[in-house]
Each structure stands twice: as C-alpha cells, then as structure tokens.
Amino acid sequence: MTPHQLARRKLAARGALAACLLCVGTVGYSVGEALTYPGDDSTAARLAGWAREHEMGTVVDKLENLQYDLDPPKVGGSLPSEALARMKATTPAMPVRHREVPLRSPMRPLVTPGLPGEGVWRVLSAAHGEPVVQGTYVRPDGDHTSYQAAVAWISGTKARFELHPGVREPGGTFSVPPTIPQGRRTGLLATWNGGFKVTDGGSRGGFYLNGETAGELRDGAASEVFYKDGSIKIGQWGRDVRMTRDVVGVRQCLELMVDHGAVVPDIDVDSKWGATDQSRMFVQRSGVGVTAQGDVIMAVGQALTARTLAELMQQAGAVRAMPLDMNRAWPSFMSYDGTHDPADPKPTNILDFENPPERYYNQATRDFVAVYAK
Q: How far is the CA of 80 from the CAs of 7, 83, 213, in angstroms?
C-alpha cells in the first residue's frame, strides 16, 4: 500500500469514527431527553415511546410479543383479595340523593355465576348530591377469572367534557394545558386516557382543539367530539359527527368497535385494533362509548381482547363505542371526590394502573379527557 493510499484509508477511518461518535452522541442525547421529560411515565414506557418515534416500532412489537409469550395472562383462578373487596364495596362513600340520577340497574355479569357485587353499580363521583359518575366491576370472560374489568357510566346531562393535549402527544402549543392545574379542579369528576398516537399515524386519525390540528381528521375514523356547551358525542367522522362551528375538540382513534348497538363484524381481524399485541391477545385496553340517551360508557380492563372490550361496552349499554389506548402504561380512569376539599378533589384509580391517580394533576405526556359537573 502506497503512502497516499494509507493516508486516504486513515482519513476515511477517522471520518467513519467521527460519524459513529456523532451518531452515538445524538442517540444518547435523544434517549436521555426521553428518560427525563416531565410526567409520570415509567422507564419502559419512555423507552418504548422513544423507539416508536425513531421508526423502531417493529422492534418494540417483537419485544412486547415476546414478553407476552413468556408471561401470558393466567387462565382460571380467583380474583385477588383486594379486587374482591373492591367488587363488593357497593355502599356509597359519600352522601347522594338519587332524585334526578338513579343508580343504574345491575349489569349482567359476563361470567356466571356472578360474584357478590359483580355488575352492581356504585357511586364513583357525585355532583350536587347526585351520582353523576357510577362504576361497576366484572370479570372479562370465563377463562381469565383472576382479572377484573371496570366500567364507568357518566350522565350526559349532568356533566361537561373537556379534551386536553399532552406534552408529547400530540405536542404543539395548544391553548388548553396538558394538565389539570390548581385553580381548575373544582367540580372535577373523572378523567380518562386518550388513544393511539396521532403523531406516528398509529391512531389513523387526527387531533383537533380550539382551531389547532395535529395529524389529519379522517372520514370513517372513530371520534370523540367535544362541543362548546360541554357535551360530547362519539361516532364515525363524516357520518355521525362532523366539523361544525360548535365543535371545539376532536380525538380520533381507529374505527368504531360497537355500531348501531352491536359489536362490529370484523372485531376479530388480526392487527386492526393494535398491531403491537394483535386483537386476540389479552392485554390492558380501554375504550369509550355512548348510550342511546347520550350518556357515556368508559371501560378499562387488565386482560382484554378487542372483542371482550367491545362486548363489555355493548353490554353496558353503548350503541356506538371506540377503542382508546392499550398496553400497561396508557389505559386509565380516575374518579374524584371533592367532599373534603372541593378545590382539590382526591383522585382514585378505578383499577390498579401503572400510573398514579394524580397522573393528570401533573403534566401529562399524552392527551386525555376531563369531566366536570355542570
């Protein structure tokens, strides 16, 4: 090798090394930022989110499927003692009148025979003495009897609904804060999580709030739609709901799971309801629907398929319902009790979630819905 060739090879090697160091440094900075951004997300959730944002979603899918294969949901068995106690606790912890909002008739358990308290509605949050937010617990199916699913019902006439953005999803500079700060908590009754990510196209739809849009609102997409008067509608964009001058917020995610009061025919199609775990897998899932009377049904569970989530919402009275988010870090539903401090009501998780009940009192990384008393 001539001195000239040797010099050129050394120069090329130095260039490759510099590029490698620059890449490592950039990745290190990027990962470090993902691990330290504000919010309550776990390390695993932060790393998975970072990977998906950097076009490594396929790797995350394979790892999550491998984890599922190594530790699948338990078949059979009984509910843990804490879950049993939660199911039995149907006595109101706060004074309620039931004059305008009666307690709902018990929901037929999905597993027979039912356990004490299974399917029985209880007060989760009250407004003006009325049980505006009610909830119940059931087991999701006859095989996974050691897991709980929870269903919440919210009066459409006694509550108002607000859409909030998240710091990172959808990001941007919206006029609504990515949290429920001090001074804006009076009358707070409930919160629940958003859906699949808009920014990476996973939701197959868009996010709209007060004139600002992230992604693209898609005809045919399942949509939560929020109005100036505080009401909410859930339906197919372009058919049941559409943009009008009264719309202040839209959150789209995939397609309707329940339509015209029935579970949709293609509910068992693989990957349609989440490519990560595929629709047959029993994972944490959440969804939201609306009854024929305009009341809201919200469901979450620890071991649900797309079908069992849809059946749960349909059984609870939803005539239209859509999926929200899935997997350990994201599904949630909190109720709030302002008995002791109306300006700072105490949050309670309806199930044991990864994130704390104060999740939306801190800066939320993903969008969410807040429910207030009218």
A: 70, 5, 44
Sequence-ordered list of residues with C-beta below 8 angstroms from that of 221, at least 6 positions apart, any chain: 203, 204, 205, 206, 236, 237, 252, 253, 254, 255
Which stretches of the chain score pLDDT less than 70? 1-71, 93, 270, 275-280
Vertex 286: Cα angle to 284 and 288 (nearest 5): 170
Strand, helix or coil for residue 358:
coil
Candidates 289, 339, 356; CA nearest to 94 is 339
Q: Are 161 and 369 in contact (CB under 8 A)?
A: yes
For the chain, give every domain's residue range.
3-70, 81-373
**Which tens digits make up the pLDDT trace of 159-196?**
999 999 999 999 999 999 999 999 999 999 999 999 99
- Cβ 329 vs Cβ 40: under 8 Å: no
DSSP-H helix ranges across the chain:
3-36, 43-53, 57-70, 81-88, 306-315
The model carries a pTM of: 0.84
DSSP 3-state of 354:
coil
